[in-house]
Specification:
This protein has 2 domains: 44 residues; 121 residues, Cupredoxins -  blue copper proteins (Immunoglobulin-like, Sandwich), CATH 2.60.40. 31% of the residues lie in helices and 32% in strands. It is built from 2 helices and 10 strands. The longest helix has 43 residues. The radius of gyration is 27 Å and the shape is elongated. The protein starts with a helix and ends with a strand. The relative contact order is 0.13. The mean pLDDT is 83.
């Protein structure tokens, strides 16, 4: 009788030990599976979250994505083009200036800015009546900004929010709504 009781106590202990091990393996599998799934979604561009802290192309509205593809397929000689009513701007942020440093838009016009930086981690800060746009730009990785130009005509100044050299505080440009 005592032998049988001792055997069942050992079975219960083994069962509890195995249950903890099984639960641990299940939890590890869930964590690895979820992490892998998130990495694959972000790397494929199917997610509108941020990779490297930057706005992705997939975060643009679908019509703006199509217009950016058309813009990049046949880029104009100047840096801006209006496609289907949307102003597309290909902006490069150099170490001490923006190119272009003037964007002219109509009131209520959709605007897409493609930001590039060839040599320094940079930024773009623009305060509009509808809110603030603050985007980081890493060299070699384009960032995308989408907004609708304000309905009030006027000049809106953008700035360089990141320290990229001695003249960064003087780096600015103007969005002119006419």
């Amino acid at each position: 009788m005592t032998y049988l009781k001792l055997q069942t106590d050992m079975d219960k202990e083994r069962l509890l030990h195995n249950a903890e091990l099984i639960w641990f393996i299940v939890m590890i599998c869930l964590v690895v599976g979820y992490f892998s799934w998130q990495v694959s979604i972000i790397l494929s561009g199917k997610n509108v979250s941020y990779r490297y802290g930057l706005p992705l192309f997939s975060g643009l509205p679908k019509f703006a994505q199509n217009e950016v593809i058309e813009f990049e397929h046949d880029p104009p000689s100047n840096l801006t083009e209006v496609i289907n009513g949307t102003l597309i701007v290909n902006m490069t942020i150099y170490q001490y200036y923006f190119k272009p440093d003037l964007i002219v838009a109509k009131p209520g016009q959709p605007v897409v800015i493609i930001l590039n930086s060839p040599n320094a981690t940079a930024g773009f800060y623009l305060r509009l009546p509808s809110g603030v746009i603050n985007v980081n730009v890493v060299p070699g990785i384009p960032s995308y900004i989408y907004f609708v130009a304000p309905n009030q005509p006027g000049n809106y100044t953008w700035y360089e929010p990141e320290y990229i050299g001695w003249g960064f505080s003087y780096m600015n440009g103007t969005l002119e709504v006419v």
